[in-house]
Amino acid sequence: MNIGRFAKKTPHLYLFVLLAYRTGGRASAILELPWDRIDFARGQIRRGLGERRAKGRATVPMTEDTAEILKEAKRAALTDYVIEYGGKRVGSIKKAFGRAAARAGVPWATPHVLRHSAAVHMAESGVPMAEIAQYLGHSSEGVTFRTYARFSPTYLKRAAAALE
């Protein structure tokens, strides 16, 4: 699935897709993200809401290319929010995402697929469940394990080895 390629024609959608995948964030967390939570000096994105802890709002590191794309977007920003269109904060990405998903040949895809894909790719790369849980902002590693452990390359290896 390469929705990003189809999203590039729509800058606000491209930035949303990039951030949703690279941060593992929920759509609401990405759409609510103001520029003052992008910490270029530390290379972090603070999805948290200050002192108040909200569901799935972790602080995550930025990759170098994500930082460069965000710096470019900030130079062009007209609002305090990272995801904007026509000088206004974007409240919903569903229509634009749906059109891009249809063009990409995956009309069933939703913005949440990006969060799930990020977690699956981390698990497939052998990232420990505790790290994935923290990255996603899960309150419990158990939630992460139940959902994503089967994607880990080491999952059930001991069980299989016992049968040799």
Describe the structure in your own words.
The chain is mainly α. It has a domain at 3-110: hpI Integrase, Chain A, CATH 1.10.443. It is 49% helix and 7% strand. It has helices at 3-7, 11-23, 27-31, 64-76, 94-103, 112-124, 129-136, 141-148, 157-161, and strands at residues 38-39, 44-46, 59-61, 84-85, 88-89. A hairpin with a 2-residue loop joins β4 and β5 (88-89).
Count the E strands: 5
Strand content: 5-15%
CATH architecture descriptor of the domain at 3-110: Orthogonal Bundle
Compressed to H and E, one letter per element, the order equals HHHEEEHEEHHHHH
Layout of SSEs?
Blueprint: H1 3-7, H2 11-23, H3 27-31, E1 38-39, E2 44-46, E3 59-61, H4 64-76, E4 84-85, E5 88-89, H5 94-103, H6 112-124, H7 129-136, H8 141-148, H9 157-161
Antiparallel strand pairs: 1-2, 2-3, 4-5
Helix pairs in contact: 2-4, 2-6, 7-8
Features:
164 residues; mainly alpha; hpI Integrase, Chain A; three-stranded antiparallel β-sheet; two-stranded antiparallel ribbon; 9 helices; 5 strands
Summary, kept brief:
With 164 residues, the chain is mainly α.
